[in-house]
Amino acid sequence: MTKRHNRTLFYLADSGRMCGEVDRPATPAEQQRAFRFSRIVESGTPPASDALLEALADGMTRAAPDTDSPIPAGFTYLGQFVDHDLTRDRTQVSFGTSVPPDQLVQARSPALDLDSVYGEGPQAASSAAFYQADGVRLKLGTTKKSGNPPIESLDLDGFDLPRKGAAGPPEEARQALIADPRNDENLVVAQTHLAFLRFHNAVCDRLAGSTPSALLFERAREMVVKHYQWMLRFDFLPRIVDQAIIDDVFSMGRRFFEVGAQGFPTMPIEFSVAAYRLGHSMIREKYDWNAVFGPGGSIGDFGTLENLFRFSGTSGNLSPGSDLNNPIDGPFERLPTNWVADWTRLFDFATDGVPALAPEAGHTVNKARPIDIRLTDPLRTLPLGSFGARGGGLAVPPAQLNLAFRNLVRGRMVRLATGQEMVNAMQDAGLAIQPLTSAEILGTEFAGLSQALKDELVTATPLWFYVLREAGLRGGRMGSIGGRIVAEVFHRAIEGSTHSILRDPFFSPTLGRVAGMFRMTDLLGLAYNAAAGELRPLSVNAPRPNAAQMQPSG
């Protein structure tokens, strides 16, 4: 499969075929080197028409009311981080095996193992550059002073991703030096990746006094991965998937995807190309970002989606007022200090038991948009860097800049089953599924379609549209089709990880503030020194919590 978000070829392990803009048998080399995608349900429906996909994409990205969901906005981008931990090409290897550089394919394993952070580990030539000199801790980056004292006028060590800088060609200087460069596509996912780098280092520091140096990295990684999996299982998944589905999958086991399978998982295209693209509907047009970029801030403008792309090294160039599609425009080669995240505006620390970390007076926690068929309208026009099209010299047709259109076309390229075909397959597997009615599928947004397009939509609904419509009608959580796919793939991805809470029934998290519990706010509390104001470093007058409030239980 080609790199980044403009993927065009998938290797399907169960059929031994390359699928995408072509459909042909895979060569032996492709079968040996390919990341194992799979297909749960074969489609017998003719591909969707251009007219239908264009009409859906247009309707899905029209300006809509700026509605809040109950989900703190940080989970939108945690979801993107998780996606990048699961879905990218990878050479098939046994657990723990390091792949020689000449055999590497840019890749992620379909397991929740944080290889998007660790790469192949500190001993592998392919990823040694991500690690500090001790070969245990991960490198961090330093921001570039960009504004007023006392904080914005400083270079802040540890608040940006590490970047290539002068060591490489000028066009690569702003690129992040991390295992998965997609995690520098927008500022929020970049700061999320940074939080995981810092979390790993903090765990290393906690273990260093009691762990032999030769074992420190592996023990820290195991602790980090298991706490990460626990947080996803109990803090993230219940926000996006119906709780009854989660309970069924994690207590009774999988009933639809790789039932009874052992060993290395595959990645079903129904997840990667449809069901788990739910996060695109959660993205907001703008955020109350920090004490500088928010209402009442020193600049007073919000953190707009355009700027969240701009202040990244992959989609933007880290520089204000620059040409977004020119990777070397503007003077900044590191993140400006005034753009560091205020985590208290992205996650709800107060609800999680740390009231001193509620947003300051006049501010609230940013909320994600509801999971439904509507995408914020700036996603009609993506920056070229967000899908790997910068520097190619070719004009990109306007329709291909629309994120909804790109998602729908990808589904057609890999011949995804329709929503109706998924309903039938799940019912055949013995699952109780209540299919959407024609009226529910059309809604009010598409009542004006021609009769031919209405007929096509309600009888052969593109799967991505179907699962989003289902979520919107079921209270904003993924329902019986989308939720089942997401929950079962998460279950399989945890089970198939080298370190797995499902294969370690005695594991219980010890790094949270409350014994037996670990949430994203706990992870951030370990990664950043709350007492020193690191969770909201630009808010110099904000109340500081008592340091004991953010200490783990043991």
Please, could you describe this protein's structure?
- With 554 residues, the protein is mainly alpha-helical.
- It has one domain (41-48, 64-373, 414-444, 462-550): Myeloperoxidase, subunit C (Orthogonal Bundle), CATH 1.10.640.
- 31% of the residues lie in helices and 5% in strands.
- The strands form four sheets. The protein has a three-stranded antiparallel beta sheet.
- The chain is globular and about 60 Å long.
- The model is unreliable at 1-8 and 89-106 (pLDDT under 50).
Features:
554 residues; mainly alpha; Myeloperoxidase, subunit C; 3-stranded antiparallel beta sheet; two-stranded parallel sheet; 16 helices; 31% helix; disordered N terminus
